[in-house]
């Protein structure tokens, strides 16, 4: 074997290592070790299987439904404390951050235990749909949802499937990131 052939083989091996080396290292890190990336890309919890919600009007005085639009549902008591107000604010900001797609998302507050402060709602959240938890639709939705904390946030797809639950401390960026990704890859709206 002459010197040119040896040099050519070494170059071929070096090129192969340059292209295959990172792939082999990544494969070993992922499957051969306990290392995993720290940061999650999904901030909410996907519900599996998704829970089909009724296709009834949300209120008697409205034709709003949980179909043909993404819905962010907040379940909270009528005496909306600081945690509830923060969640309502953050859901409003998420919808506004969707910019041109904001018309494809509605916000719904299922109010438990009485009447909310309507002055607060009208001043701070004019597009928020209020649903009484004791009314038939609100009670039916709550019956389909498992255990709840003080304030819960759910996402309903345009087919009426309750498909994601957000922890109350998820924050606006986490909800926005998940909703943007879901709408991007979803073929249903």
Number of helices: 5
Number of domains: 2
Distance between the termini: 65 Å
CATH homologous superfamily classification of the largest domain: Glutaredoxin
SSE order in H/E notation?
Answer: HEEHEHEHEEH
- Report low-confidence residues grouped into runs of 5 or more: none
CATH topology of the largest domain: Glutaredoxin
The coarse overall form would be elongated
Evaluate the radius of gyration.
Answer: 24 Å
Give a count of the beta strands, DSSP E runs of length 2 or more: 6
Tell me roughly what share of residues is in helical segments. 40-55%
Strand order of the largest sheet: 1-6-5-2-3-4
Task: Note the main sheet.
Answer: 6 strands, mixed
**The top level CATH class name of the largest domain:** Alpha Beta
Explain the overall architecture:
By secondary structure, this protein is of the alpha/beta class. It has two domains: about 1-40; about 45-185, Glutaredoxin. It is about 40% helix and about 20% strand. The chain is built from five helices and six strands. The protein has helices at about 5-30, 80-95, 120-125, 135-145, 170-185; strands at about 45-50, 70-75, 105-110, 130, 150-155, 160-165. The protein has a six-stranded mixed sheet, sandwiched between helices. The chain is elongated and about 90 Å long. The termini are far apart.
Brief write-up:
This protein has 189 residues and is of the alpha/beta class. It contains 5 helices and 6 strands, in the order αββαβαβαββα. It has 2 domains: 1-38; 45-185, Glutaredoxin (3-Layer(aba) Sandwich).
